Inverse folding.
């Protein structure tokens, strides 16, 4: 199986680099079957972020397949299988008499020198956690790699923004704080629902309309409930707050069931 | 069938999220703010700032760094912090 995809810079692409995806691939492959894909590489220098990115993919593959081979250069080619693998591809091509125009022996040998393989292998870390559908680590590492190409630093704007928000939050009355947190929680849950939809179905476009409509319908029902209540007090808000606190664990566990 | 169940689950969660939010928003507006422009202004601003903050924080930090489960734990923590404030305000 050959995957010809861009690097996982979005959750839509990340789903093809996860432990769950590799398990599904292994289930449909023959015992000697191979999965092969490439990510953008760096020939002579592997930064910490790039090493973490590669390690997350490598460790995810290692959790599923017995043998993994990474061929370095401007594109790092990952090859994984439960069957045996060798980096001496030139030898295999020659042994089988395969005629090639571009990928000839010297090109392949230069690409798979011991030094290059050792540099890449040495940069991989077992400590980097595997990439999961609902915990997309390669997506985060890839963003770090991308940001590392530029000199911009976002620390100061982030600190100023956080300070302003903290002042605003502290100046809010109790009900303002409640609504602030509810707005934060509700939109977080909506974003999570949309992301989960994208992870499960591949594209958020097909579901975004119905999911937003469902949320708006819920808002209408919730607002209407207030009209039907005979006595409204702070206790009513406390009951809803308890409802939200109970709802959140069941919300998250519904994706892991 | 799996696809249908998955869609149904996500739509149901979306409706429940909306119901809780809608109920709390309208009740809080009625309990705490006297005039219609108070109700339309202050709570709406607080709600929208919470929403806009989340749009940035969840996608950039929470999901990549702590995952979906970790994000939900953070939200539970946030609500658990707010709840005692509400109880103190009631007294």
């Amino acid at each position: 199986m050959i995957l010809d995809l861009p690097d996982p810079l979005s959750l839509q692409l990340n789903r093809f680099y996860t432990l769950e995806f590799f398990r599904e691939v292994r289930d449909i492959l023959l015992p000697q079957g191979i999965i092969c894909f490439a990510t953008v590489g760096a020939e002579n220098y592997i930064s910490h972020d790039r090493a973490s990115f590669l390690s997350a993919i490598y460790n995810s593959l290692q959790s599923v397949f017995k043998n993994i081979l990474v061929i370095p250069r401007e594109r790092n080619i990952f090859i994984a299988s439960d069957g045996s693998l060798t980096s001496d591809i030139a030898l295999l091509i020659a042994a089988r008499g395969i005629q090639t125009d571009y990928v000839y022996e010297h090109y392949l040998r230069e690409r798979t020198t011991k030094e290059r393989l050792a540099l890449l292998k040495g940069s991989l870390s077992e400590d980097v956690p595997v990439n999961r559908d609902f915990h997309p680590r390669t997506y985060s590492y890839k963003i770090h790699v991308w940001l590392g190409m530029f000199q911009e630093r976002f620390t100061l704007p982030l600190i100023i923004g956080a300070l302003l928000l903290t002042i605003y939050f502290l100046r809010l009355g109790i009900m303002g704080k409640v609504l602030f947190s509810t707005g934060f929680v509700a939109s977080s849950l909506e974003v999570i629902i949309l992301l989960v939809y994208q992870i499960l179905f591949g594209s958020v476009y097909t579901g975004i309309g119905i999911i937003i409509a469902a949320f708006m319908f819920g808002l209408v029902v919730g607002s209407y409930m207030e009209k039907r209540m005979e006595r409204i007090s702070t206790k009513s808000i406390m009951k809803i707050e308890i409802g939200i606190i109970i709802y959140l664990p069941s919300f998250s566990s519904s994706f892991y069931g | 069938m799996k696809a249908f169940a998955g869609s149904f689950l996500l739509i149901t969660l979306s409706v429940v999220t909306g119901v809780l939010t809608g109920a709390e928003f309208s009740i809080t507006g009625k309990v705490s703010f006297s005039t219609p422009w108070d109700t339309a202004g202050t709570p709406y601003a607080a709600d929208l700032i919470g929403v806009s903050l989340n749009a940035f924080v969840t996608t950039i930090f929470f999901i990549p760094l702590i995952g979906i489960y970790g994000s939900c734990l953070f939200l539970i923590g946030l609500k658990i912090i707010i709840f005692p404030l509400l109880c103190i305000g009631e007294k």
Summary: Chain A has eleven helices and four strands. Chain A has a mean pLDDT of 86.
